[in-house]
Specification:
The protein has about 160 residues and is an alpha+beta fold. About 35% of the residues lie in helices and about 20% in strands.
């Protein structure tokens, strides 16, 4: 396994899929461990967010839950990376695709829990309709109950807010 793949696997195993009392006993992503186990996560070394993101179609998610593109974080300023992801989302809005960003220099904190991977700049690409459906199920279970409103506003930008 390549270094970037191992890093993402470890992050999912050791953090993303672990329940956390500060998140009401939920894990940061309750679906991640199962998706990884069932090989529905594709971890790639990205070239540029634009090239990688603009080539995505809904067909990419026929047998995958998420594509994770890893970039050397020093290649992108955190604000620039976020703006690139925003523009990609506008360009792929009609393809049932959503991309989310994670940059080590943009701290994402929920109830005192740092959510970032911390090493790579990451672009997560998923089926928008499937992501919205999963978010609805989580909302019904109280998953977002104590999350900061500002964080949720950003998270659901360009998406159906399930709350």
């Amino acid at each position: 396994m390549l270094e970037h793949e191992q890093s993402i696997h470890n992050w999912i195993r050791d953090f993303v899929s672990k329940s956390n009392p500060q998140l009401n006993g939920h894990s940061p992503c309750p679906y991640a461990a199962q998706a990884l186990k069932e090989k529905r996560v594709d971890i790639l070394l990205g070239s540029t967010p634009e090239r990688d993101g603009l080539l995505l179609t809904s067909n990419d998610f026929e047998h995958l839950d998420v594509k994770v593109f890893c970039y050397n974080a020093s290649m992108f300023d955190a604000v620039d990376f976020s703006e690139r992801i925003y523009l990609i989302n506008q360009a792929v809005a009609d393809k049932d695709v959503l991309v989310l960003d994670d940059h080590p220099n943009t701290l994402e904190v929920v109830n005192g829990v740092k959510m970032n991977h911390g090493t790579y700049a990451l672009m997560f690409a998923q089926s928008l309709s499937r992501l919205d459906k999963a978010a609805e199920m989580l909302a019904r279970r109280g998953y977002y109950k104590n999350w900061p409103e500002e964080y949720l506003k950003d998270l659901f930008q360009g998406r159906k807010d399930p709350r």
